[in-house]
Amino acid sequence: MGSVRQEIRYEKLQDTDTEEPEGQVTVRVFRNRSLAASRGRDRETYLRVLSSMLLLLVAVGFVLYELQVSRAEPPRGHNELLENKNELLESDDEEEEDESHHHSHHHDESDNHSDSTGHHHPTNTYHQGIAVTDSDVCSRIGKEMLQDGGTVVDAGIAAVLCLAVIHPHTTSLGAVFSCVVYNGSSNGARMLNALPRDPSPSPFGVPVMLQGLHLLHQNYGHKPWEELLSPAIRLANKGFCVDDTLGRALQNNQQFISSSVGLCNLFCHKNDSTGGLKEVGETVINPSLGKFLEQVSTHYTDSFVTGLLAQSLPDDTDSTIRDKFTAAISHHRPDIEAPVTLHVEELTLYTSGGQTAGRILSNFVQTLNENSSSDSLLLPLMSRRAAPVGTNVIIARSSGDLLVMSLSLNSSFGSGFVSPSTGILLSDFIQHPGLSQESQPEFWACPSVLSLEGDVMGLAATGGSSVPSSLAHIILNHLFLKMNLTESVRESLTHEHFPVKPTRDTNPLAALAVIVEAEHVHVAKSSALCCFHEGL
């Protein structure tokens, strides 16, 4: 039987009427037959057809605009020392705990650990649950929330707020996020996009994170709201240590930070005429942010939070702009919605919709599941202004409950403006006027959950246009080509496929997967620069 040629053609949507067109990129896909025509045939043929998607993704990585990824191994000694120091800072006002609690649990995956039942597992496998973030401190906070009986959403909120304090290069209370929540008991999924609804009248993004987190807690949280904010409050008030990840970001953005009064107040050495920045291991405090978090932890109402967030603008902001900014915050009412859902044989994919890249990921998989009469599939090339994913958080329980969240400031350290009154670093994620909610995605995130024959997997990646293809690659590798999880993730694509706007700091691209199977939780990551996991 002759091969059927299919094309996937990406076209650039012009940002304005005056923008010059930049052409299109075409990727040809060759395959023997569609999945629709072969469902009744043997499984081996089915896998061969699906594997053609792997060739598509590899081709994309080579023929489209590439961004080479640095894979340097970070020094681990610093992180272990910093974790101990951060623990001391966190526990100044608490009773002394067992000494073994203060040892780092982030080891090489070849090591083993024992869980509370005495079972021995590799350090990337846990019996009860796991918290995965870009910070050992925040991962531990998430794990402890699970250990204390919190839901995956409770643990995720506490971990995200921790990141908003200690990793301002990737997220803050001024950031945006997209998430998928999966219930292992009901086998159902929901999504929430904390993205601005209205264009910002100022050069700063409208802060929407806190409202989204609070809505998640109202629907899926069990622990008291103030308890979730307590670790972040302690870190902001008592201080945290610059870790290796933040240290690299500071060095890569020295000029930008030095030119920002707010960032320099946090990260520049005082009484230092050279303007030198704090280095790995030095302590940073943000009492204004701590005070803000204390206020919203004990008194959260929409009007109260809107009023506080509106104070984040510079003092010299024009009153008209301030009023419009306040109105944009008030108009933001995040909704919990049904996710984009795709069924392929026994596999069900749940991913984000709206102005994210979830539909692009779904289309990657769906292309191989349809017998299209057309030889081409047109997918919009997202705007150069589309925000990359800066960091991800995945929380899982062995019961099958999962939270997958992708966050962004749009640029490293966002707008660079730290509010003197609230301590919040505002993003430069600007909602552009004239775009409908569905007309042009503005966030490359596609946090995803997959369900297959009782097993559940959470997927996320950092970067821009590489994110949906990286996740599609993991799906093919692990679920269809039967590669082990670690190998599947490490061999996922980590190249940008389309032009992205220049940034001050290019973060290493990384993919992350957490799978719940046989009452155990496993984690795998693509880059040594990505992610710390703490489990039970």
Brief account:
With 536 residues, the chain is an alpha+beta fold. The protein is built from 16 helices and 21 strands. This is Glutathione hydrolase 6.
Descriptive notes:
The chain has 536 residues and is α+β, with helices and mostly antiparallel strands. It has one domain: Glutamine Phosphoribosylpyrophosphate, subunit 1, domain 1 (4-Layer Sandwich), CATH 3.60.20.40. It contains 16 helices and 21 strands. The protein has helices at residues 35-38, 43-63, 76-90, 136-147, 152-166, 209-220, 225-238, 244-252, 254-258, 261-267, 287-298, 302-310, 319-331, 358-367, 466-480, 485-490; strands at residues 4-12, 24-31, 112-114, 120-122, 125-126, 129-133, 176-183, 188-194, 240-241, 283-284, 336-337, 340-344, 347-351, 376-381, 391-397, 402-408, 448-452, 455-461, 511-517, 520-525, 532-535. The strands form 5 sheets. It has a 7-stranded antiparallel β-sheet with strand order 5-20-19-18-17-13-12. It has a 7-stranded antiparallel β-sheet with strand order 11-8-7-16-15-6-21. It has a 3-stranded mixed β-sheet with strand order 2-1-14, covered by helices on one side. Strand 19 and strand 20 form a beta hairpin. It is globular. Mean pLDDT is 77; it is low at 1-43, 57-81, 92-111 and 371-382.
Q: Biggest sheet: strands, sense, closure? A: 7 strands, antiparallel
Between the first and last Cα atoms, what is the distance in angstroms? 53 Å
Q: How many domain regions?
A: 1
CATH class: Alpha Beta
